[in-house]
Amino acid sequence: MKRLIAPLATAALLIGLAGCVPGIPTPPRNTESGSSETSSSETGQASEETTGGPVAFGEFAQVSKDLGAKLKISIGAPADLDPAQASFPPEVGKYVAVDAQAELLAGTVDNISDDEFTLVDSQGNRYEAATVSLDNMFLHLLTEGEPVSGKIVYDVPADATGFTVEYAPTDSQEKELGVLASWK
């Protein structure tokens, strides 16, 4: 029993420190005027690490946050999650999961969590991340040069399609920064 309490207490502490409270959904914003930067190769061609408007699923976007933090983030294409991988059945219809990767490129320690990512379907309906298991959650304290990965899971209607994922974090004072990156 003691072996179970320590990991659960650690997970609860991490969730509390990361500010994992349900976020207020925000309407999509024009990310072209955001704090994203475009990276390009020496030949002037766009590299696979692009930013700005929506990038393709699986590509990296670089975003700048407060306190000089610069992150590189990738979101994989949404796919149905096998219900056997979840500890709880879906309440809305089905689970859709995306693979997420992030790395702190510059700045001080920063955090990233699944509650900063919103799934939007083709009808404009917005879905917050659902906790389906404590295994493989996307909740990390980032340190420079150490990439992290995990899954972000959403509970959506069974007929939902045409997904976009938006990254809208908060700053160090919990002020919303708006949509800094999106994947389509």
From TrEMBL:
Sequence segments annotated as region (Disordered): 25-54
Listed PROSITE patterns: PROKAR_LIPOPROTEIN (PS51257)
Keywords: Signal
DUF4352 domain segment(s): 112-170
Source species, domain of life: Bacteria
Listed InterPro entries: DUF4352, Immunoprotect_excell_Ig-like
Signal peptide interval: 1-23
Biased amino acid composition, Low complexity: 31-53
Protein name according to UniProt: DUF4352 domain-containing protein
